[in-house]
Specification:
- Helix content is 39%, strand content 18%.
- It has 323 residues and is of the alpha/beta class.
- It binds ligand PBG.
Amino acid sequence: MIRRPRRNRQNEVIRNMVQETSLTLNDFIFPLFIIEGQNKRVEVASMPGINRFSIDTLLEEIASCVDLGVKAFAPFASIPEQLKDKYATDSHNPDGLYARAIREVKRNFPEVVLMTDVAMDPYSSDGHDGIVEGGEILNDETLEVLGKMALTQAQAGADIVGPSDMMDGRVAHIRRVLDENGYHKVGIMSYTAKYASAFYGPFRDALDSAPKKGDKKTYQMNPANSREALIEAELDIAEGADFLMVKPALAYLDIIKALHDNSHLPIAAYNVSGEYAMVKAAAEKGWLDGEKAMLESLLSIKRAGADVILSYFAKEYAQFLRK
Ligand code: PBG
């Protein structure tokens, strides 16, 4: 045997020398949940270790993350039921919870990067990402709402807006609205290939944003399809996206790789709530080593071709690095 691959695995120094992929804190965006009120910190039942924060405790949480070296955040707001309506009006309210939170974070931490969520579902009385009429999700009418929402977020201080709705033409529409209003520096991280996934369950618990009727299959992608992701990628590139995102991450590593190989834009991957919950639940039962499973999952996402990872593990990963 002249070829013995084990020679390069024989000790840690050599293993580290030949390691192809590594994670750094620069790769991460940490999603955060916001609620109304004061001095609130309410754990999400299906996401141990992840809380919903009122704006004051959100600032404390961001301070502790910044101390650990986490510098980018993706906030999501949980909107009281009575403020939800058919047209998600509160989503572009400059005095709404979300806009207030963005302004406060940027005022206290001008150096952090905020990637905001552009989608109607947390504000929609139907719990959908678009306007519902006669059981149908209206595409072009929804774009108007998304444009207003993105503009309100940019005015509040968002650095990057993240359309997570999967309506056709939304990147072009949002880009035009931002540019017409002088926000040419605000980037767009498009949820390019967002699949109709069971792994969003815990997130919908956190925000109380599950669809009241039906599912999201007329806009989110069919998990069986990969070539369709390339159509979405072509459109997002043509429409002016600055990043392409794949979501979820772990069940879609092939899609991350496909986008990485077929475009020159940075690729992001969203390690979603259900992927986090699975690891936490198994670890709580003592069925696997939660920390090792976290590190392996995150590394796999990077290895597949993601430059940016949105993950509920971001803070825990930063804490792990300090140990
Ligand atoms: C909806 C949205 C969802 C997530 C982010 N934005 C859920 C959905 O499409 O129903 C899920 C994130 C996660 O599960 O961590 N616009």
